Amino acid sequence: MMDAAAALTWLDGRPEITSLRAAVCDLNGVLRGKRVPVAQARTVLEGRMRMPFSIVFLDIWGEDVADNPVVWEEGDVDGCCVPTGRGLLPMDWLSPPSALIPLWLVEEDGAPYPGDPRQALAAVVERYAQKGLTPVVATELEFYLVDTGSGEPTPPRSPVTNRLLDGDGALCIDDLDHFEAFFTDVYAACDAYGIPVDSAISENGGGQFEINLHHVADPLRAADDALYFKRFVKGIARRHGLAASFMAKPFLDRAGSGFHVHFSLNNRDGRNIFDNGGPEGSAAMRHAVAGLLDHMRSSALVFAPHLNSYRRLQPNAHAPTEVCWGYDTRHAAIRIPGGAPDARRIEHRVAGADANPYLVLAAILGAALAGIEAGVEPPAPMQAVQDEGAAPALPEDWKAAITAFEQSNRMGTIFAPILRRSFVGMKKQEFQVFARQISPFEHETYLETV
DSSP letter string over 41-60? Predict the structure, then answer.
């Protein structure tokens, strides 16, 4: 954690930085805020900046949601923006360099603002703390490097051979080597900011990669790291003449990009309560799995929040489509990896890389806690391969997921009413905007045919 004095000292050592970005994370996982002269850094770092509460409820295009009560009923009042304590995020890919001050929203009296997605996760973590439990979390994020020079995104060309990377390259070392300069810059940036990066792999689509982050015993830090990692990757890709996309499915004929979450729970003694000494895991682990399964359909909108998200959640697309769990099988939505018993953990495989990390971790940890508190048992685990339709299906499209989230009482135990109402209103508004568009393919199919 970095206080205001330490942050100002850090800035003194970076005289080339003349402006800062002060931002909060909205419900879509987009950073929104202000460009601030470095001379005003103390104002921001001491929590004296104000921005409207509605900033976290804007739709994907940055528009107010039509029926948002914060805007239209409460007068769009300002909230207090307080630094999260993570210090300053260097943005050395900009010219001149800048730095991000991560903020979150609080009420006038200092109380957490429940519509802020980071505050939503903090509330769930506090419930664990009251039980003497600490979630230990790791994330895996997949993304594509793409060439946008032609207007339409295409797989990138190798900086070494100029060859178009348009084939499947799962675990291909050569594909990683081609982009060694890019990965070196990403790892250096993460190291400088304390983001615990682990291995990088080439994934299943041309130009698709995955970088894993180490487990940390702090879900807020894990979500921060995922959000800032995405920021690093996008910024550094631009410096290398490319774009980085965390869309769930940027190419229909290639694998989608997921956001897999691994977690275990430590008690006050630091012991993993999912460990029972064997491969099957403890009763607490099974109860957590049951809670995750019970909440999965209701929270699908959190894991797949956009129209494009549902192009990834299709059969035979390397992504789960059913509410099921299993041991060491990647066909399951909830996977229990093998390995040493003291590392027993749950892997949640539903979310796409386009999802908001704070909401994803809040939904996962909140559902697991509900299962533990209820002491319920999950259904039998699936086998390595399961017939399609053997388990309940996830919502088949965006509209169904919006309805499931809106109508679920389960979500009320995890997210505050203002966040739920705003999230649903936002997604309905985005859905309507897309529904009003006519694609070129529609014109091609119907214009002179019917």
Answer: HHHHHTT-EEEEGGGGG--T
Q: What is the pLDDT of residues 386-422, one digit of tens each?
A: 555 578 999 999 999 999 999 999 999 999 999 999 9
CA distance to 106, 179, 360, 392, per residue, from 294 (Å): 32, 42, 16, 11
Amino acid at 43: T
Q: What's the CA gap between 57 and 424, in Å, rounded?
A: 10
Q: Could you tell me which residue, 382 or 203, shows the higher pLDDT?
A: 382
The residues, ordered by sequence, that sit 6+ positions from 431 with a Cβ below 8 Å of its Cβ are: 307, 398, 399, 402
Q: How many CB atoms lie within 10 A of CB 130?
A: 8
Whether pTM exceeds 0.85 = yes
Report the SS3 class of residue 267: coil
DSSP 130-167: HTT-EEEEEEEEEEEEEB-TTSS-BPPBPTTT--B--S
Domains and CATH numbers, the chain: 4-115 (3.10.20.70), 126-412+430-435 (3.30.590.10)
Distant-in-sequence, close-in-space partners of 439: CB < 8 Å, separation ≥ 6? none
Query: What is the residue whose two structure tokens read 């509330």?
Result: 123
- 177-215 pLDDT per residue, tens: 888 899 999 999 999 888 999 888 877 667 889 999 999
